Fold this protein.
Amino acid sequence: MGIEQFDVLAFFGERWNEPRPLENFARLLDALGQPWQGMRIVHVAGTNGKGSTCAFVDRMLRRAGYRTGLFTSPALQRVNERFQIDGQNVGDDALDRAVRRVAAAEADVGMYFGGFDRMTAAGLLIFAEAGVEWLVLEAGLGGRLDATTAVPAEIAMISRIGLDHTEVLGDTIDKIAWEKAMIIQPGQRCAIVHPQEGEAMRAIEARCAETGVPLLRVDGSGLLLNEIYHGRQRFTVQRGDVHFVLETGLLGRYQIENAAAALIAGQALGLDAIAIREGIAQAEWPGRLERLEGHPMIWLDGAHNPQCMRALADSLGEYAPGQRFVLITAIMADKDWLTMLKTIAPHVECAVAVDLGARSVPAEELADALERLGTTAHVAHDLEWAFAKASDLCEEPGREDCAILVCGSLYLVGDMRGYLL
């Protein structure tokens, strides 16, 4: 029976907004036979850069010869992307089996679980069935009450922390950092942390001191971009007196931070230099400053909060020098969308705003805000029209050298990528 017949999307789409103790989720895992047993786990939390960091670590482990599982969210195009085994999306049959077992176990324990809890449990079953040796596990919103924190990890990693999901995690950086730092648990080998604002780093330092877990930092001053060439970048990571020259096809200076964190993780896990270097070079993570060749050229970036949008804006001049852009955007209503528009508007010639459903800011509202910011904006109610309009705008006199920039939401990027490819 295929996954559509069970309606996996509805099963995973159930929301549960009340905080629940992890002991409840542990009961569900007990009913499933503790499927995490036998897997070694790298646990990754943070606001921005989690997925790319996971992709780097997963690829290094695969290059070292391990069978890996990769659990991330959200998916760009299809739910199966959230569960990867050795770099391949899980098949429908394996996903169907796992979902049915989770539904049965949920009934056995007599408790209701939200979609992310169910997804985490299904992923653990999938990875156990596949014989995964190393699991790279991306946390959901937070850490303290996140389902992924119910399983023991060998290494904790925390990417850049910013103001996002404030209605759940708190309205200040230190509150959010405290929630995410709770993935650091006693007995772990180390906690690897990206450069952070002062309040965030202090919260993480306090958690490491409380648990006795060694803190390993990515030193932002030790990262140097050397060269951008043919859609790749070469860079140097300095750790003490040692310099590592690496390259990756993932663009953006923030990817250098993510790769540096992965390098530290690889060293902590005892991976050899070849696995680390080639794993970072071979890593793929679509929809993050991704360039699709053609006429017009298209850039896809999942910038979905102000911090991400600032990183994108800062990257455009360096990674797309001399290009001008026609923007296609949609933004979820729970984001600080006006700040996001203020950040990207100075970098675009004009814009097309599109609706993504009830959870997104209405396209008319986005277009009005862009117009007030001095950017000519058009309204689209579907992706096909939005892309056709943006393509036409690129061909207008004086704009023939423009590229299309798609950003504002990972859901938008996923839908557009599916439409284009």
The first strand starts at residue 40 and ends at 45. The mean pLDDT is 93.
